[in-house]
Sequence to fold (241 residues):
Amino acid sequence: MIQLNNLYKSFGVQRVLSGLNLNVAKGETFSILGKSGTGKSVTLKCIVGLMVPDAGDISIDSMDVDVNDRKTLKEIRRMIGFLFQGGALYDSMTIRENLVFNLTRHHKVKHSEASEKAAHYLSLVGLADFIDKMPSELSGGMRKRAALARALVIEPQILLYDEPTTGLDPITSAEIGELIREMHGRFKVTGIVVTHDILCAGIVSDRAGVLKDGLLKYTGALDELVQIEDEEIKGFFRKPL
Ligand SMILES: Nc1ncnc2c1ncn2[C@@H]1O[C@H](COP(=O)(O)OP(=O)(O)OP(=O)(O)O)[C@@H](O)[C@H]1O
Ligand SMILES: [Mg+2]
Fold:
């Protein structure tokens, strides 16, 4: 469903990706682990065409991601929900309006229908009583759930997450992880989750890989990754949960 073949990306003399490969099957959720600055966000941005790799190919559901082919890119983007690092809700809109805006502006859904859908998805993530609140009136965990609802409301086939649990306590992180897992199961979503949070990765992913030296090294089930004799990788698993 998502195929990254031999991706290269440099910024000036700094090489970030150097031959990265990844295949994520339909319905599968894959976690990308890796230290800060290793290129995790860059990888996600390449997938949605916000950044262009220097070399290599990306295809989504057999369609090539090519920023010069705006029509196909638009079609691909319509299939993808993206949770940016930081959540990024619009602060001047209620959370319902945040969802409605996503539907009416980018997906041409009529306002009345969008408003109903927004309420439905906010209730799925446990925010039914808060739909008319401003983001500033919500806790960090609630904002993450609202951002998840905003990504889900377009009913995407693919969801990409950049650090969905950063800044949350372990219990709330686990709750968000469970919610992502449940939503993926319910809607048969294919997902890539970028995270430092091993607890979250364990809950949401079928497979994971460690991004290091521009490559996804050691892909496999998380319990296989735990066994790997590499100091940096062991460092992830040693982190207090
Ligand atoms: N637009 C850009 N221009 C120049 N350099 C960039 C740009 N975007 C990213 N980089 C560089 O590429 C490297 C990888 O960045 P990226 O944001 O992918 O890291 P990351 O793995 O997501 O880290 P973190 O865990 O801190 O979010 C960094 O060294 C960063 O400085
Ligand atoms: Mg990042």
In short: The CA atoms of residues 48 and 82 lie 9 Å apart. The mean pLDDT is 91. Residues 1-79+192-241 form a domain with the Rossmann fold fold (CATH 3.40.50.300). The pocket of adenosine-5'-triphosphate (ligand 1) is lined by residues 11, 16, 34, 36-42, 85 (CB under 6 Å).
